[in-house]
Specification:
Layout lengths: L1 H5 L5 H8 L29 H31 L8 H26 L2 H8 L6 H23 L5 H5 L4 H20 L9 H10 L3 H14 L7 H23 L7 H8 L9
Helix pairs in contact: 3-4, 3-6, 4-6, 6-8, 6-9, 8-9, 8-10, 9-10, 9-11, 10-11
Length: 276
């Protein structure tokens, strides 16, 4: 999924699984597994873990759909590169069509996250047993990362095209990601690498200098348990994005048209798993 969202992968495999409805159900997603291949649920988890696994399943499928749509919209934007002789009305129609398709997925995400039982679970997260709590942290951070991605990264000039109307939602999502990441690092859980991609998205999208520095610091701390150089590479890409955003801001007083996916492609960097 990370590979699809970053443009490093085509998404053909997950697209095939979605199209043919062969994604394993949520009861088969968490180790350890029983004799029948389904996840073992311990007695203290029965009231919460199955619900949280279903929530994670639903958000993950929407994340994949967002990635597939982004691949399509970015290819479309590349094919119809903006030139000075294009009619502004045509551009506006094109942007509105893109926006409506993205908003459909955003609304699906919000509907899932705003269900009463989801709100209740997140409010009671500190009272949950260890495994349900950690799966909910993963799901919560993925939901926020997907919302940020869907507002900023679906096509190269999306944030410039959409304007500041979604800044509050983006800010709310970044704040929650930093809250979860702070807890993960504070507890020394450096193997919880699911938080790296949400941190990256929070850093890329934030206008706050403090938050941007915090994203870099937290990702660097997660490198302690990293396999290979993926997490370090993620931090290096984030630094490149910051530098390009600063350069662009000095030129035109904004950096809304700086695209982190394009920067990765320019630099020949591919990250299949941001937190591995």
């Amino acid at each position: 999924m990370n590979a699809l969202l970053s443009g490093a992968g085509t998404g053909d495999f997950v697209g095939y699984m979605l199209k043919n409805d062969i994604v394993p159900p949520p009861s088969f997603h968490l180790y350890p597994l029983g004799i029948d291949g389904s996840s073992i649920v311990y007695a203290e988890e029965t009231e919460t873990l199955p619900t949280i696994l279903q929530l994670n399943y639903d958000i993950t499928l929407l994340a994949v759909r967002i990635g597939l749509l982004a691949r399509e919209l970015r290819a479309e934007a590349s094919e119809h590169a903006f030139t000075s002789d294009m009619l502004s009305q045509g551009l506006q129609i094109d942007t509105n069509l893109r926006r409506s398709r993205v908003q459909e997925l955003q609304e699906a995400l919000r509907q899932i996250w705003n269900l009463p039982h989801t709100i209740r679970l997140e409010q009671q997260i500190e009272e949950l047993p260890s495994r349900p709590r950690q799966v909910l942290e993963l799901t919560s951070s993925l939901y926020r990362a997907c919302m940020i991605y869907s507002h900023t990264s679906m096509w190269p000039t999306q944030r410039l095209d959409d304007g500041p109307g979604y800044d509050d939602e983006i800010s709310e999502c970044t704040g929650k990601i930093f809250e979860i990441a702070g807890k993960v690092v504070g507890q020394g859980r450096y193997d919880s690498r699911f938080i790296v991609f949400p941190l990256f998205m929070a850093g890329v999208s934030s206008h706050s200098g403090g938050e941007r520095r915090r994203a870099m610091e937290l990702i660097q701390l997660m490198e302690f348990e990293s396999i290979g150089a993926n997490t370090a590479t993620t931090r290096r890409i984030l630094k490149m994005v910051y530098e390009r955003q600063h350069e662009r801001f000095m030129q035109v007083a904004h950096s809304l048209d700086v695209c982190w996916i394009d920067i990765m492609a320019e630099q020949g960097v591919q990250v299949v798993n941001f937190g591995l």
